[in-house]
Every structure is written in C-alpha cells, then in structure tokens.
C-alpha cells in the first residue's frame, strides 16, 4: 500500500482503539442498555432519511443488526459497566474472528484448513488465559459478557456475508435501525424508568460533558469516519493487506487505557493477549479468518469477496 494508505489504516486502528475510552466515558453517565439505544438511534434517524437502503434481503439486514449491533454492544456495554477493564475489552472482542471461523464451519459448512484451525486454537488458548488471569482477582462474569459480545459480532459477520451488499457502508448504516427499539425496551424493563429519567435529567450538566463527548466520538469518529476509511481501503487493496491493521486496535486500546485510566494488565493477561493477536494473524494468513473492524467487511469488513469477510467494528468494536 502507498504510505498515505498505510497512514489511513493506522489512523483507523487508533480511532477504533480510542473508541473504548469513549464508551467508558459514556457509561459513567448512561446505563448500558440505554446507551446502546442512544448510540444507534443517533445513526438510524439520519440514515433512514438520507441513505438509500442497501438492496439486500431484509432477513440478512435484520440478522446483521441483531448480531453485530444489538447482541455485540448489549454484552460489551454491560460487561464494561460491571467493571471489565476498558483495554482488555478491546482485546477480548478479537474473539469475534475465531468465533466467525467456527460458526462458518458449523452453520455455513465452510472448511477450516489446518492453518486456520491452528490459529483458532492458539487464539482460544489466549482467551482462556486472559479469562483465567482476570478471574483470579475479580468476578469472571464481566469477562464472559464481553466474550458473548464477540460471539454476537460473529453472528453479525455471517449475516453480513450472506447479504453480499454492493455498498457495504450502506449496510453498516442501515443495520443501525435494528438496535434502538429492542434496546430501549430492555432498558425500560431491566434498568427502569427511574434510572433512565435520572440519567437523562442529569445529562445536561457540565459533569456529563465527557459522556456526551464519548457518545459523539463513538458515532462520528469510531463508526462513521473509521468505518468509512476502512471500507475505502478495502475497496482498493486485498483484504489480507488491510485486515491485519485491525490487530493494532487492542494494542491502542490497552495502551490508552493504561495511560488515561491507569489500567495495568497482569503478565497472564498480556501473554494471553499476545496469543490472541498472534493466533488471529496466523489464521488470517489462510485467507479465511474474518477481521475486526467495523466494517471491515471487506469488499467492511467492495473490498470483500463472498468467501472472505473481515469483521466489522464499529468496535466498536467496535469495537
């Protein structure tokens, strides 16, 4: 890739890595289910008014929104709100890649080669090590919730692959119409009207500015700008050239959480993280492991071919 394109790929990794700090800031003001509803409602309204609907079957659009948009962020935000470290969250979401490979084999009957299978096994070992290391000093439930978020992302990857959208960014945007109503309903049931009203009433204060700034960052920089750059790069370069840059997301996430929040992963968590990243990169060399990114469906994660799909991340991420 030209240096300018490499710089854009690095910028996207930084945008997505810092996105976890933005989520952390927003969760200080808003309960997790309400925050997911707000995040996607902000995108959904202008999308319906201004962006043409992608010409894909409704079932794949809805399933993509359910997996990538609803389940991923429901569990990610809930896990983070219960105390799972911000930096480690950016790492654990990388589990979406091996999850996608395994689900593709089980549900779509895709073949897992020896190369990819070894990478998945190494990544799974790393995740287990992260979970054991974290669970030795804290409740393991938040880790499992974030891991479920990665599983939701993986289901979204399969739906997005089946959709085969001609304009992947439109699919990413239209996916945002799915989460707001179910997440608002869950917020009303589990978080309650009193907690919702209190969060909204106190949000118009100077103390709540970081929360609004975090939400704006997540929508404008993490989702729209980051995904837009990623789709643009995927349309111009092979997925195997662009996708590995997404492995920098947890590096940025862990580093920025350490510098700003004082989070310091233990040796076991760092070793597990290295195994996760190494396993995912190794498996990706086989050309069959989807990558993180938001849209990193490759063709967002056209830059994508029907048999290869980089994981989207709106990591949100996107994470």
From TrEMBL:
Instruction: List each copy of the EamA domain by range.
Output: 6-130, 144-284
Its taxonomic path starts at:
Bacteria, Bacillati, Actinomycetota, Actinomycetes, Micrococcales
| Basic and acidic residues bias spans | 299-310
Question: Where does the record place it?
Answer: Membrane
| Entry membrane topology | Multi-pass membrane protein
Region Disordered, as annotated, extends over 291-319
The highest taxon in the source lineage is Bacteria
Q: What is this protein called?
A: EamA family transporter
Q: Which organism is it from?
A: Demequina zhanjiangensis
Spans through the membrane: 32-51, 58-79, 91-108, 115-134, 140-159, 171-190, 210-235, 242-261, 267-284
Please provide the record's keywords in A-Z order: Membrane, Transmembrane, Transmembrane helix
Annotated family: Belongs to the EamA transporter family.
